[in-house]
């Protein structure tokens, strides 16, 4: 600490580390968006690392600025490191560095507020990362005291070359993605309104008794939007019905969507129509993907699937790296009615338990299965299974995907005054009218699908007022934190609502 040049060394080291971390963060983000790193690990873990790199680079920039003020040789003031052109020392390069700092703060701040910001705004702001890297390169090239040294030239050329290659990769991947990338729905629980696209049935094959597997492709065999495991799409059937089905293929495959459809006895007509009428070559309108059952990063997972509930679970399993700890419990009436059971058993014989009721005199013993586990639990299946698991697992470790809405008690319905901020509309929703119906009748750009409060298609942002959540998409506390509601079934606890739509 007695070296008079200590803080000068700290300033140089922190600046180079920050530059390297920024480059790595941008490169990692590009690899994520282009899916190049898909098979290294699950997407959620990669996104966390991307954020960690960006956040650490911001810390290093802060250390660099503080050390400039502490260094007795430079003796920068707070104004000189925070206000562009406030210093007489190389004012333009220093100003570029200050602007890069503020852009970096904006990008990192937007990442922390990802679930609260409109997806398009967040994405546009995130592109400022490229500008930040460019400004830092000019700042380092013209204001650094080691510019003429060989090591500095080698490091600078390496970092600039890596950034140039990464940006070129992003541009090439974007062009290959074509128009499909522009309609990409948000891979979070706060997606954009999905835009239907026409897709062709490539195949329709039996997967098990009463279950048909449907493969959908774009007419031009183009690239489809990125989707994280747990996502679902909505099929717009010619009968007018809209049905949601979980994607059960490999999330890394950008050329097709795979779903499995169970024919149910109490079907409203959707599954019956698909089983009786859907044939290869037929065109369907498809919207999504959307995701309210997202796979979060964890060291250990326990997946529990009941019947057709295997569909989102299968995609989750396929997205995990080979070394990740997980187990699967797959229950059904019989192996003949359980889709993918033979495939999964052959691929993961040591990781799964199959419980076919016709082979087991005793029921599935959840106390034995769940008792010693500290893993994150992901469960999808019939309501009886979900309720049994929910009764045994703390909410912090539990993730459920429902096929039917929860029964929720609502207050006596009353009229609601609704204002749509973006559409500049105000109207009254009658007590006997759903909020979604009222929005549609007034021409508000919103899509409804299940109309039961389970698919999340009709999600809107609440600017003012307090919603009465009657849906089963997310926990009420999470919806309030995100500032969203689902107007197909939900109403208002306040006399008026202002919606950001």
Automatic annotation (TrEMBL):
SUPFAM superfamilies: 2Fe-2S ferredoxin-like (SSF54292), Ferredoxin reductase-like, C-terminal NADP-linked domain (SSF52343), Riboflavin synthase domain-like (SSF63380)
Record flagged with keyword Oxidoreductase: yes
Bilayer-crossing regions: 6-31, 52-74, 94-113, 125-144, 150-172
Cofactor dependence: FAD
Any matching Pfam family: NAD_binding_1
Keyword tags: 2Fe-2S, Flavoprotein, Iron, Iron-sulfur, Membrane, Metal-binding, Oxidoreductase, Transmembrane, Transmembrane helix
Protein name, UniProt field: 2Fe-2S iron-sulfur cluster binding domain-containing protein
Source taxonomy: Bacteria, Bacillati, Actinomycetota, Actinomycetes, Micrococcales
